[in-house]
Amino acid sequence: MDFLTALGLNKSRLTILVMIGLIIQGLLTYSSIPKRENPAITIRNAIISAEFPGMSPERVEDLIVDPIERKAREIGEIEDIKALITTGSTVITVEVYDNIPKSQLEDVFQDIRNRMEDVKSELPDGTKGPFVNTNYGDVAIATVAVTGEGFSYAEIKDAADDLRTSLYTVDGISKVSLFGQQDERIWLEIDSRKLAAIGVQLPQVLSDLQNQNVILPAGELDAAGTTLILEANGDLGSVDDIGNILTKVTGLSGFVRLKDLMNVRRGYVDPKSKPVYFNNRPSIVVSVEMVDTEDIQKLGKTLDTAVNKFEQAQPLSISYEFSTFQ
Fold first, then answer.
1. Is residue 60 part of a domain?
2. Residue 4 pLDDT exceeds 60
3. pTM for this one?
4. I need a labelling partner for 255 at 20 to 30 A (CA). Which of 28, 105, 185, 296 fits?
């Protein structure tokens, strides 16, 4: 009598039991391993871009690309540098050695950013950049469109900011970004007839604005051993502050307030820069990325619950809708 017979088993039963065990082990393993729709890719390149509108490719190479390359070559972890040069612009790809551990890549990228800040003083006045992009390999697990029927753009932007802050408290989320937001501007709407009537010229108005909106050191004051820093502050903190700036009126001994010459209001860039619409409604998109070790199936349910719960605490008509969701 062999061992299997003693246990009351034959080879067929043993094979079935082994197969069942393997299936159970596979199911348990599957439930615990990280899963995502798109694989995590380690990007070892940084993209550096710079612009000088109208400059010829030859001068772009001599005056912009060469200083950037020399500064980048000072970083020992960089293996290769490639540059694409066109009229008025350049895109430079910086490649990091493959043997640099993934954990050290962010330090290398930060070194690149720091050195590109240093090289700005060597570039011609009027150069835009250099700008460093190291995030183009990131993949969003979800995007949430924030809309608000009857709400202003500023209120929709605040709702998107609030959602971003809330999502950073969810375990497993590594990065939350906003897309479609517009830069704010202070608009001075000039009434040309009124300006002409009192003889105020636009350069004078701009000069008074620049001279007012300054912060200068004014020395120190020693008060019983305590040093107080003094500051001459002309900082403009509101639209009303700008409207109340006094400007000189040609031919008159007095001054006139800026808001008496033109309409001063807060607004956004016009035309809009890369606006986003969701179902034909103005929107701001909240993009969510997760930690590489997370499971998209588990985190996805947590994220869905978090967004729905947060929406319930918002004013009516503020809507958070998933536009993409892995």
1. yes
2. no
3. 0.61
4. 185
